[in-house]
Amino acid sequence: MELFGTSTDGVGHEPVFGALIAIVAALFIVTLVFSVYAFVLRLRHEARDRERARYASKWKDRILLALADDDEARALQESVEEDERLPFVGFAVQYARRVRGDGREALSRLVKPFLGPIVERADSRRVEIRARAIQTLGTLGLPEHSARLIAALDDPSPLVAMVAARALSFGEAPEYAEAVLSRLHRFTGWNRRFLASMLASMGPSVTATLRAGLADSGAEARSRAVAAEALQIQADLGAGDVAAGVLRTTTDRDLLASTLRLVREVGRPEHAESVRMHVRSPDLAVRAQALHALGTVGGEAEIPQLVEAMRDPSPWAALNATEGLLAAGGGRLLAEMAASGDGVGALARQVLAGGSH
Amino acid sequence: MSETIWSVIGTFNYVVLAYFVLLNVVYLGTSVFALRALRRYALRLKSLDLTELITSGGAPSISLIAPAHNEALTCVESVRSLLKIEYPDFEVLVVNDGSKDDTLARLREAFQLEPASRIPTATVPTATVREVYRSRTHPSLFVIDKENGGKADALNAGLNYCYTPTFCAMDADSLLEPEALIRIVRPFLEDATTIAAGGILRIANGCRIEKGRVVEVRLPKSLLARFQVLEYLRVFLAGRMGWASLDASLIISGAFGIFSREPVVSAGGYATDTVGEDMELVVRLHRYHSEKGLPYKIHFVPDPVAWTECPESVAVLARQRDRWQRGLYQSLTRHSRMLLNPRYGKAGLLAFPYFFFLEMLGPVIELLGYLSFILTISSGRADWWFVGAFLAMAIVLGGVLSLAAVALEELSFRRYPRRSDLLQLFGLAALESFGYRQLNTWWRVKGTYSALRGVEGWGRMTRTGFQS
């Protein structure tokens, strides 16, 4: 049988023709299903928008009043209907993200009677629902849920664990920091700088733990690098000695680069020797960071080496050397170099103009 | 004609039918994967406060690299919109690629540019850079003025002057939504092996734009542009989302994508000898990382939006599609060793064969199918019931795919707020199979032919500028 191309008597076409007709019918039904689905979704979204607007007009002003007035808070709690409990929590949590201190506490007290379903959702089988519940509990920051949040750090889903870690990182309590730091290996897939920033935001209470984490030669290099970067963000002046020790013992590229950045931030002249070990590293990232750090901690004695490094074949290393030179007190020398028209002059002009990143 | 020829034509008709069925099964498959991925993404968005996540620190700094060639009409507004982007740490590098109009003059005047020292940090070959300027009013804005070398060359120049670990490649005439970077950078936070992420392109024609921002989303007035709205929904929401959920993205649109700088420099930057430099780069990144055994991920993020102006004239659209097809051909033939090669994982085993056989060769098969179909019918040898059923299937299936994309849009981001817009999208899905699809096929076949003849260049693209 040839499709389209033989006699017009239809003989032999029946099976294919029948299949085509069946496919057309099925597709037509799918078309209708998609159309109806899209339209129903539209109607549902519109209904949800209307509902949100209704809740906003009903609760927005009262929530703001309730933050300052306990009687108004009680009256508002009593006015929330059974089927409005979840939306009420969701609505209030939006504000909880914007306020701190007493305001956050008042909001948490306000929604506390309605948190039962949220706690149940924290055990949902669906990852995203668990994560959202943990986020809500974390945002409200009620002490009675802290154990639940710490337990969520061991959730099989990295997303839930991260949501819990972020919630705990706002708590600024040492025990939270311990809990998060001891599970840092769970977040190895996340961006290092982001993790460091999260840890640093926990404040001075975690500094000692971070130093210990950086010094721990038995820990993963990546975790130690995160600790180094967190200490750098915190500008922990006490971390210089630990960092210098790490520079003498590790060979891991990322850990070295992170630790050199830390030394650049908090190092002292006695750490220059540890930094100097790396200024000729074949690894570009390490060499560049070492040159910058050397200028910062080493002072004028390092100027000849930094001037030489301005001709490094790697522009990154040359740029960092130039910045190191400026930090080492070579500003006048750079100003003289800036007059020249060669590559070194361009580097000098750029750094003097504050044009490096 | 002899019976042998009719027999060949009859057999070929089966090939066309098989191609048609396979193509649409793949489309439906990616739509299903996209549906699942979009639902999960929407739920994930609710479980992590994105803005808080980014603004609390640790987000990678980004350079926005915007090549501009004769963009005097739109460049100032576009750059203003870039400078207003909500992101904690970013620079804007506009690369003036030898414009013959007064693009540079307008930028100099609007942003008080002055020559600045900025050494290149990479050595990807480019046409000569004449001067680097920095804005006095916006210190994070740099303009790299260079001799003309084409878009890829301009991107490479931007890459050479990029000081941040990530960069965003875009068109100077695209409008990024203020939250676009916050949204698109998320995979870089969640997965340290991420080397690239693409965002969604939407059509700005018909939308109301104020001060470089889309403030009201409307469907375009022109039918041709409306078809493209539907097409973009299908390509991005059903296609790219689906392929990304399979870890097999082969394209990140040149108008809006974010990349880790180091892997791109290591892989040699953008290829300047292709008009499909965006796809070629992504394919090369797959190849580079697979061959070196390096871990990597390429993502598609469905909600960061870049608004772009689409062609409203048939001639300009034809040139655009011709160029896209040439880019596809050049990217795939250059890396043809990836085809069905398990060494390249899902990219080599799934995505590459799809693009090679169905997207690159598909239009040729489809056009020949039309011709064979017409020949068979005109010879009077066709079974009319059969023909009718086949046509009905083609039309209904086309509608299903487009409606699936509309449903995905409703499920996820619902950017077209009026019900009438939704109904119009339904109507367009039904109409698309009558003419627009065939025109596209014709342009793509011409594109393949142009690629085979070695035609180069972008072809003249006329811009009218965003209507405020």
What does this structure look like?
Chain A is mainly α. Chain A is 69% helix and 0% strand. In chain A, helix 7 packs across helix 8 and helix 12 runs parallel beside helix 14. The longest helix of chain A is centred in the N-terminal third of the chain and has 53 residues. The radius of gyration of chain A is 31 Å and the shape is extended. About 2% of the residues of chain A have low confidence. Chain B is α/β, with parallel strands linked by helices and 468 residues long. Chain B contains 16 helices and twelve strands. In chain B, the strands form two sheets. Chain B has a ten-stranded mixed β-sheet. In chain B, strands 9-10 form a two-stranded antiparallel ribbon. In chain B, strand 4 and strand 5 form a beta hairpin. The longest helix of chain B is centred in the N-terminal third of the chain and has 45 residues. The termini of chain B are far apart. Chains A and B meet through helix 1, helix 6, helix 8, helix 10 and helix 18 of A and helix 1, helix 7, helix 13, helix 14 and helix 15 of B.
